[in-house]
Amino acid sequence: MLALAPLVFPTYGMTLLTEALILGVFAMSLDLTVGYTRLISFGHAAAYGFGAYACGWLLLHTPLPMVAAIPLAALLAGVVAIGVAWVCTQATGVSFSMLTLAFAQLLYAVAYKWTSVTGGSDGLAGIPRRPGPLGLHVFVSRNGFYYLVLIVLFGAFLFCRALVRSPFGAVLRGIRDNEAKTLALGYNTRGYKIAVVALSYGLGALAGALYAPFAGFANTELLFWLLSGQVLIMVIVGGAGTLIGPILGAVFFLTVEHQLSNYTEAWGLFFGLIFIAFVIFAPEGIWGLIRARFVRRSAVEPEFRRGVARAR
Amino acid sequence: MGLLAFFVTQSLNALSQAALLFFLGVGLTLIFGIMRIVNFAHGTFYMLGAFVGYSAARLTGSFWLALALAPLAVGIVGALFELGILRRLYRRDESAFLMVTFGLALVLTELIRLGWGPEALQVEAPSVFSGIVFVLGEPFPTYRLFLAGAGILVALAIWQFLERTRLGLLIRATSQNAEMVHALGIDVNLVRSAVFGIGCGLAGVGGVLAAPLVTASIGMAAEMIIDAFVIVIIGGMGSFPGSLLGAVLVAFVQVFGEYYLPDLALAFMYLVMLLVLVVRPGGLLGKEA
């Protein structure tokens, strides 16, 4: 259905949808840690920004084509993230959130000051959508780029679904619901946590790497803590502990923001009220609402609810 | 300028900065200690204090009256938010609080913009403190000296309040074991409302006091909130002396870092935070997490 979108939406709508789906990949990557492992990362902007800067730098300073620069940037981020994950997973609970925040802000500060590589407060501008290899041009145009994003989103979704359904995913949920028990069962929970945090950062960087050639620039805002807060809200509004939910959350977030800012200067007011209403009246998010309406039984959700109950 | 004079004036400068950070940080840390809430709207309450302070100062013609009234108003707004919204959520996980306080920050910011307009508003320092004093022969703004003094006074007052009063006792007890306090027949919810109100009110004090220095503007919340988080994290979430230590440490790193290593000052602050967290995940004076 999404593949037909370019036939229906106007130009402006396509740009918005493309950005929303990029953020969808980003939000989904965060949910691997937040929803499935209950590691609340508050520095996920680090992944997004790192991916965007790395991909932008590769496109500006190397002859690599876009379709190679994007996965390379994500891979690089994933490798760096292993070290970050190793440090952050030494802590649990709020301390984990704060460590991830510290790393993200550190990266922000570095990007802000390391002008020769990052362009400082101006950021990297004029990032090209370089075609190739072998004269492959299809992804360069607006709609072509949309399909590239769609392919990545679909691929990332299948990957995450396979991951959370695998024995690996079962251990993650075990950590979420009762880490001590999972450890007692003989699983090296620390190792699993490092793996999932690094994977989550890598996927988040993939989204950021898509953003760089999409927008044509990368700036420090992509590393700022505000984005970390926003993506967390996308996950929660959409429905944490599911894969579809965060994507819906991202689309919802961006659409409402754009629509409201068309109608009123004070869009932040209504935006804020919507969040508060969601927390109070729809704690399981958009996807939770949809499921409650159309699907009687669900496999993941009651489990997640129990996880939440225990976390109290 | 002599080296000694330089160090003394810069240190005073850092102390005045620490005072402002402390007004935010102490509220954040008290609220976290009692409710396990990371209050995202805290910077917005600080900003609200500055704007209400501006209006109060204009209406009454007195900065001192504004300094008394504005924090009270901000505290009441905070307490009402706790009563109306947060209270429904105590049985939910921390992500719920993250979202409502984030939402509140958006709503309050927009209401402030609607109420006071988008322009930065100048607040006059009280005439006693608007001049310059000479410290070891170097000129230094009196108002900054007053800020540092006010910070020390308020820190002492809060310390005495926590140690000597019944409410202070209840706050300390609730932060250690809310269930036990509840079992002893104390209305824990009332303690929570009070702490949230007091914490927001203290942010309001910070806002009023900061206004003559930086003007009351829409951007002031975003500027301060992350610094306030950093000091609370470094000091230890939930620890009152920790917030004081964190504020002084961060202010000194900022002021002296800006002078000696202007390129690295920003990164240095986060590096300190990272180091502290790696060595002591609960913060310098916090409980082990």
Itemize the secondary structure elements and their pairings:
The complex is a heterodimer of chains A (312) and B (289).
Chain A: H1 5-8, H2 11-37, H3 45-61, H4 66-88, H5 93-113, H6 115-118, H7 142-165, H8 167-177, H9 179-184, H10 189-215, H11 225-238, H12 244-263, H13 267-281, H14 285-294, H15 301-311
Helix pairs in contact in A: 2-7, 2-10, 2-11, 2-12, 3-4, 3-5, 3-10, 4-10, 7-8, 8-10, 11-12, 11-14, 12-13, 12-14
Chain B: H1 3-35, H2 42-60, H3 63-84, H4 94-116, E1 132-135, E2 138-141, H5 142-164, H6 166-176, H7 178-183, H8 188-214, H9 220-235, H10 240-260, H11 265-279
Antiparallel strand pairs in B: 1-2
What would you say this structure looks like, in words?
Chain A has 312 residues and is an all-alpha fold. Chain A has one domain (2-224). Helix content of chain A is 75%, strand content 0%. Chain A contains 15 helices and no strands. In chain A, α3 packs across α10 (189-215). Chain B has one domain. In chain B, α5 (142-164) packs across α6 and α9 (220-235) packs parallel to α11 (265-279). Chain B is globular and about 60 Å long. The mean pLDDT of chain B is 88. Chains A and B meet through α5, α11 and α13 of A and α4, α9 and α11 of B.
